[in-house]
Amino acid sequence: MRPPLSPPVTPPDLLPFLLQEWGAQEAGGGAPYVEILEQPKQRGMRFRYKCEGRSAGSIPGEHSTETTKTHPTIRVNNYRGPGRVRVSLVTKDPPHRPHPHELVGKDCKDGFYEAELSPERSIHSFQNLGIQCVKKRELEAAVAERIRTNNNPFNVPAEQRGGEYDLAAVRLCFQVWVGGPGGLRPLPPVLSQPVYDNRAPSTAELRICRVNRNSGSCRGGDEIFLLCDKVQKEDIEVRFSAEGWEAKGSFAQADVHRQVAIVFRTPPFRDPALRAPVTVRMELQRPSDRQRSAPVDFRYLPHQGDLQCIEEKRKRTRETFRSFVQRSPLPAPASSESRPPRRIAVPSRPPPAPQNPPSVGEWGKLGETGGNWGGGGKGEIWGGNGEEQGGGWGEMGRGEMGWGAALGGAGGGRAPPSPLPSPPSPLLLFWGAGGALGGPGPPRTGAFGRGAAAAAI
Length: 457
What we know:
The protein is mostly beta strands. The chain is about 5% helix and about 25% strand. The relative contact order is 0.08.
C-alpha cells in the first residue's frame, strides 16, 4: 500500500523570491531600512559648471583606485520587491537643506536622480552621477527650483532655508520607497559622508608633490622647500610624527608661496643626542577639518657639529688666533730682521756750480736760452753778450729736471731781484711782451726785457 502523499513543502531558498513577487517583507527580519555599503569619495572630484560644456564626471566610491573603480552603493535590508529610489544633494550641516548644486547624468532631472528598484536584487550601485555647481548669482533661483519640484528630503521649513550655503561641500541623500498594503511607502532617508569640491583650497585633498631634501639634523633648523597642491596659508601645517612624538615645522604665512609651495624649518627631534638615523613621517595637515595628506619619509640624522666652524670663529680672540697660526701647516712669514735692506735707485747728479749774480746786467740780451734749474752749461747765470748769446737759469738747451725758461731782451734792464725768487709752478709763463706765447707787453722796457718767453717743461 502506498503511503499517503505529503503536502508540498516550499524550499527555504525559494521563499525570498516568492516574497519578492508579492513585495513582502523577508521572513525573520525586522523593518526594511537602507544601508550604505560604499560611501562616495570625500575628495578627489571636481565640481563643474554648466558652462564648461562637458560631462560633470562620475562620483567615485570611497575605495576606488586607479585600477579598480567603485561607485556609491546602497542596500535595502529586509525587503525584496518593487520600489523606487531617489538621490539628491543636501547641505553638509543640519538642518540639511536642499543644496543649490544639482546631480547630472543618466536618469537625472530637476537636479536629482530617480529610478525604479530592481526586484531581483537588493543592492543598487550608482555609476553615472556627477555634481554640477551653480554660480552665486543663481543660488536663490536654484533653491526655489528644488522646492518647486518637491526635492526637500527633510522638509526644512522656509524660514530655515535662508542663510549662507557652503558651495564647496555637499551630501548625498538616499531615499527609498518600498511596496506596502496601500502602495509605496517611504523609508527614512540616509545621508552619505560629505563630498568636497577638489577645486576649493579650503576643502581640496592635501598632497605633497616634492621636497628638496628628505633628511636633516636631529637638532632641527634645516630649511625645507615643499611643493604641494593648493592650500590656504592661514589653514595649513607641516607635521612631523613618530611613535609617541609629534611636532610642527616652523614657518609664517608669508612663507606660503602662491598656495603651492611652503618654505619651513624642521623641528628638533625628541632626542637631540641621536646616535643613529631615525625615519619619521612628514605630512600636511589642515587644522580646520583635521584633514591630512599622505605621509612621506623624513630622516633625522645625528648632529655633525658646526661644519663651517661659525660658532668657533665668533669666540676667537687674538691669542686663539695666534695659537691657530702656530699650529697651521703653512710656513710662517719671514721676520723683518732677516730681510735685506731695500735698495732704491737714485740717479747721481754733479753738484751745482756756484751762482753769483752780477752787480749789473740784464736777464739776457737778444738771446734765447732754455734750461732747467741746474748748473753748468754755456753762458753765465745772469747773461751777457757775444759768444754766450745770453744767459739763463741753467744750461742752454732743453732741461731734464726742474723747470726751464727762455729769457731774452731787446733793451736795457736792471739787475735781477735779490734774493733770487723761487722757481715758478710748472705752468706756462710768459714774461715781457711779444714773447713766444704772445700777450701784451709792459708800457716800457722792463727789467726782464721785451720779447722774452719762459716755459716750464
